[in-house]
Design brief:
Layout (H helix, E strand, L loop, with lengths): L4 H5 L2 H5 L22 E2 L9 E5 L2 E2 L9 E5 L24 E3 L9 H17 L3 E7 H4 L12 H9 L3 E7 L20 H14 L6 E4 L6 H4 L8 H18 L4 E4 L2 E2 L8 H11 L10 E4 L20 H14 L7 E6 L9 H17 L5 E3 L35 H12 L4 E5 L12 E8 L2 E8 L4 E3 L7 E4 L12 E3 L4 E4 L1
Parallel strand pairs: 5-13, 6-7, 7-8, 8-9, 10-11, 11-12, 12-13
Antiparallel strand pairs: 1-4, 2-3, 2-4, 14-15, 15-16, 16-20, 17-19, 18-20
Length: 504
C-alpha cells in the first residue's frame, strides 16, 4: 500500500489540479453537428465544470506535448452513477480470500519461528493465499547473479502448510537505473532487465508459485515509481509487456496479474487515467496479461463505505465498471479482476466494528461482482497503531500477534474474515435476492444470495440507518457478521450496517 502521509503533505496540489480557465461553451460545427471542444495542454486550461480529456478520460497530468480537449465532466468515464454488474457462479467464497501480507523472509531459527506464528494466524483466519513481495534488488544484487536465500523459505513454508504465495515482482534495482545508486523505487532504464528478473523467478518457482503480480501501484510514482509523482505509464506498459511474455515463456500455466493500481485520483493519476495512458502508448499492453489488478481503496485515509458514490469517492461497482469502460474505449477484451489490496484502517469514523462491517460487505460485493481474489491489507496492526498516518491500523490482529512469546488477539475484522472463511467453504455467488423485496443499491440496501450444498444463504445489510424486514415463513438461522447466532424470537430482521447472514 502507498505511504500516504505524502498525500496529506501534498494536499495543496489538489487545488492546482482543479480546472480553472476554459470557455464553458462548446461550439458546434454546423456541417456535422458534432461538438467542437477547446484544446488543452494542461489541466488549468479548462474552466470550472470542464476537465482536460483525451478520448473521454479526464487527465490530471498530460504527457509532454499531449493535446486534450475541454469536456463536460458528465461526458467522461467515471462521471455516471455507479452500476453493479452482478456475476453468478465461479469459485467458492473462501478460495477468493487472501492476505496482502503475512509471511516473513529470511532463514534461521528466529525467522522460522516468526513464520510459524504467521502460519498460525493465517490458519486461524482460514486464509490460504498470501500476497508477498519478492524484491528484485535482493534477488539480483549484481546483474546476472541471483540469490534466493531470503525467499526460498517462504515458498517452502507455504508448500508445507497448504498455503499459496502470490508473488509481487517488486520493485526496481539500483544497478538497473541511471537515476539512483541506492533506491529500489526507480524503474529500470531498460524493461528487458525487469523481464529477465521475472523470467528467472518464474522458472525457479514453477510448480510452486502460479500467480505473479507485476509491480505495485505504479501510478503512485512519488512512492513506488519515481521520479514522477504520477509514475510513468508508458515505461510501465513496456515493462509489463516484456515481463508477462517472459513469465509465460517459462511457465505457460502461470497467471500474470497487472500491477494493482490505486483507484482514485488523489494528487496522483487514478487507475482510469493511468490505464488509458498505458493503452494510448501501446495497444498490446494487456495481450499477455491474464488478470487486471486493482486496489479499490476509497480516498486516503479510507473512511468511505464501499457501496456509495460521493465527492471524490466511487462505489466498488463503479470502480470496476470504470476500468472496463476504459478497456472498451481501446477495444481491449474484458478480463477478470483481482483485488490485490484493499482495506480500511481503524481511524476516526471507522471504529473496529465499522472496519469489520466494511470488510464483510466489501468481500461479499467483490465476490458478487466476479472478482477472483481479494487481498486484505493487512494481517497484523503495526507498532504505530493509533498514530497518523494510520498505516498501522489496517490489521486483522492486534499489534504483537507475530510475537511468538505472547498470545495473539483477533480484532473484530479478524473475526469477520474468520466467519467468511468458515461460511464460504462452498458458498458461490448467486446474485441479488429477489424474494425479500429489499435489495435496492440506489437506496443503499443490499440482499445478496449465495448457493451452498445446504441451500441458499442470503446476506442483507443497509448502508445507513436500519430497516425492519419481515421474514414470515423464513426459518433460516440468523448470524451476525462476526459469526454469532442472533436470537430472533420471531422478531423482524433489523437490516443495518452490520450484515446479517440467513443460513439454512
Amino acid at each position: 500500500m502507498i505511504h500516504r502521509a505524502y498525500l496529506k503533505m501534498a494536499a495543496w496540489f489538489l487545488v492546482l489540479c482543479l480546472p480553472l480557465a476554459c470557455d464553458g461553451d462548446s461550439p458546434t460545427d454546423e456541417a456535422t453537428a458534432a461538438p467542437v471542444y477547446d484544446s488543452c495542454f494542461e489541466v488549468t486550461d479548462c474552466d470550472e465544470g470542464l476537465r482536460c480529456s483525451t478520448q473521454g478520460v479526464a487527465e490530471i497530468q498530460l504527457e509532454a506535448f499531449e493535446e486534450g480537449e475541454c469536456r463536460e465532466v458528465s461526458e467522461l468515464v467515471g462521471s455516471a452513477p455507479s452500476v453493479w454488474n452482478w456475476q453468478t457462479g465461479g469459485i467458492p467464497l473462501r478460495d477468493r480470500l487472501c492476505s496482502a501480507q503475512g509471511l516473513g523472509t529470511g532463514s534461521g531459527e528466529a525467522s522460522d519461528a516468526i513464520r510459524s506464528r504467521q502460519g498460525e494466524l493465517l490458519d486461524t483466519l482460514g486464509v490460504k493465499p498470501v500476497r508477498r513481495a519478492i524484491h528484485w534488488e535482493r534477488v539480483e544484487p549484481v546483474k546476472g547473479e541471483f540469490d534466493f536465500a531470503s525467499f526460498d523459505p517462504i515458498v517452502d513454508f507455504a508448500q508445507a502448510n497448504d498455503l499459496e504465495v502470490v508473488w509481487i515482482l517488486a520493485y526496481g534495482n539500483p544497478w538497473a537505473s541511471s537515476l539512483t545508486t541506492s533506491e529500489k523505487w526507480y524503474p529500470p532504464d531498460d524493461p528487458t532487465d525487469y523481464a529477465n528478473y521475472a523470467r528467472v523467478v518464474a522458472e525457479r518457482y514453477r510448480g510452486k508459485v502460479t500467480r505473479y503480480e507485476l509491480w505495485n501501484e505504479a501510478n503512485a510514482g512519488y512512492r513506488f515509481f519515481k521520479p514522477n509523482a504520477h509514475g510513468d505509464a508508458a515505461l510501465y506498459a513496456d515493462m509489463m509487456v516484456e515481463a508477462s511474455e517472459a513469465i509465460h515463456e517459462v511457465c505457460p500455466e502461470c497467471t500474470v496479474i497487472s500491477g494493482g493500481l490505486f483507484q482514485l485520483e488523489q494528487v496522483i493519476n487514478g487507475a482510469i487515467e493511468f490505464t488509458h495512458d498505458m493503452l494510448t502508448h501501446r495497444k498490446d499492453v494487456f495481450d499477455h496479461i491474464d488478470v487486471f489488478g486493482v486496489h479499490p481503496y476509497t480516498s486516503y485515509p479510507p473512511q468511505f463505505p464501499p457501496e456509495l458514490d460521493g465527492e471524490g469517492e466511487r462505489a466498488l461497482g463503479g470502480m470496476l465498471a470504470d476500468i472496463e469502460a476504459v478497456l472498451q474505449l481501446h477495444d481491449v477484451p474484458l478480463m477478470p479482476f483481482m483485488t490485490t489490496e484493499f482495506g480500511w484502517p481503524v481511524y476516526e469514523t471507522v471504529s473496529e466494528q465499522v472496519q469489520a462491517d466494511f470488510l464483510t460487505r466489501s468481500v461479499l460485493l467483490h465476490a458478487s461482482l466476479g472478482v477472483q481474489l481479494m487481498c486484505w491489507f493487512n494481517l497484523v496492526d503495526g507498532v504505530n497503531a493509533g498514530a497518523f498516518p494510520p498505516e498501522d491500523d489496517f490489521g486483522l490482529f492486534r499489534y504483537g500477534a507475530e510475537d511468538v512469546n505472547q498470545d495473539f488477539e483477533l480484532k473484530p475484522s479478524g473475526q469477520a474474515m474468520q466467519w467468511l472463511s468458515q461460511m464460504g467453504e462452498d458458498l458461490v455467488p448467486a446474485g441479488p435476492n429477489t424474494t425479500l423485496g429489499f435489495h435496492d443499491p440506489k437506496q443503499g440496501q443490499f440482499a445478496l444470495d449465495f448457493d451452498s450444498a445446504a441451500g441458499t444463504v442470503t446476506v442483507v445489510w443497509q448502508v445507513e440507518d436500519e430497516t425492519a424486514l419481515s421474514l414470515d415463513g423464513d426459518n433460516r438461522q440468523r448470524f451476525n457478521n462476526l459469526g454469532a447466532l442472533i436470537d430472533t424470537s420471531n422478531a423482524p430482521l433489523s437490516a443495518g450496517p452490520s450484515p446479517v447472514f440467513l443460513v439454512p
